[in-house]
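Example 3.2
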Amino acid sequence: MTNILESFKKIQLNINKINSDKTVNIIAVSKTFPIEHIQPLIDYGHSHFGENKVQEAVSKWTSLKKVNENIKLHMVGRLQSNKAKDAIKLFDYIHSLDSQKLADVLSKHQLSLDKQLKYFIQVNIGNEIQKSGVPVNEIDSFYNYCVKSAKLDVIGLMIIPPNNKNTKLYFKSINELNQSLALKELSMGMSADYLDAIQYGATFVRIGSSIFGSRSQQ
């Protein structure tokens, strides 16, 4: 098994070397890994964890969150409308707000459950057909709808940039868009590019394999 704590501390050190003026939250993306594999990081006191499937997260984290109030759970995968109610019950952050339909459903269930989550709007920064997310030219109107009509607490934007050599350009572009909306948080950067993301303003980085090891071994 990967020495999870050593890997995590190395990432913390890397971040501290390039960043000193703002808080960067490491979301340990624990999807597909059993709690036994994640436990060392929980015992260490880390609080931010990410999952991409509601059903897996419910079975894995429900009882743990009841006894550990410090755990903050992030939905980092695409969220289907029919899973929204269960997501609101369990998660603290949603990183994949990407449609008016989803915003409406989340708004309705937040009201009925009397629980407020924090949201990132997912932006399809590269206009990729295979990826979800709101097109850049629709962000202003979608943000206004989410905040004013759906009454959602949108704290920032989120991207998964295209897998090409222009990653830094996408990070720079989304940072400027985030600032234009006066949003304080920015979710971008994964195992391969989190240091670049932080240099362009990321405050939440989503790191899985560099902490927990290869998922193919699971």
